[in-house]
Design brief:
This protein is mostly helical and 126 residues long. It has five helices and no strands. The chain has one domain: Nucleotidyltransferases  domain 2 (Four Helix Bundle (Hemerythrin (Met), subunit A)).
């Protein structure tokens, strides 16, 4: 299967833009939105790598979770799962997200996005 670099590049750009949005939301004290944008930045980066490596986008969180564990190991999977939990809580929970929780989510997302976009076979590896 060929490398559909157009789609991969678009997902990579979306990941970068979502991180920018998360930073803006954090600075604007919109902490729930910051957590959500941080999570979706990681999802876009993972989609980018998946398209580069296997030509497809994973369908759903559990598929993404299996991919990150296979490609990056348990620690990466754990961080991704915790970020997902924070996103669900921010989007659907009763209470508002704290500044500290939003800062943590953004820090984790920045690290995961960087790893995903620089991974072998990904958009930033060549």
């Amino acid at each position: 299967m060929g490398r559909p670099s157009g789609a991969s590049s678009e997902y990579a750009e979306k990941a970068v833009r979502m991180l920018e949005a998360a930073r803006f939301d954090l600075e604007s004290e919109m902490f729930d939105k910051a957590v959500s944008a941080a999570y979706f930045a990681v999802e876009a980066a993972l989609n980018s790598l998946s398209v580069s490596r296997q030509g497809t986008v994973p369908s759903g969180f559990r598929s993404r979770l299996r991919l990150v564990e296979r490609w990056f190991g348990e620690e990466f999977r754990r961080e991704y799962a915790l970020l997902h939990h924070a996103r669900v809580k921010a989007d659907h929970g009763r209470s508002l997200t704290s500044r500290e929780a939003a800062e943590d989510a953004l820090r984790v997302a920045e690290g995961l996005v960087s790893s995903l976009l620089r991974a072998p076979g990904g958009p930033g590896s060549g």
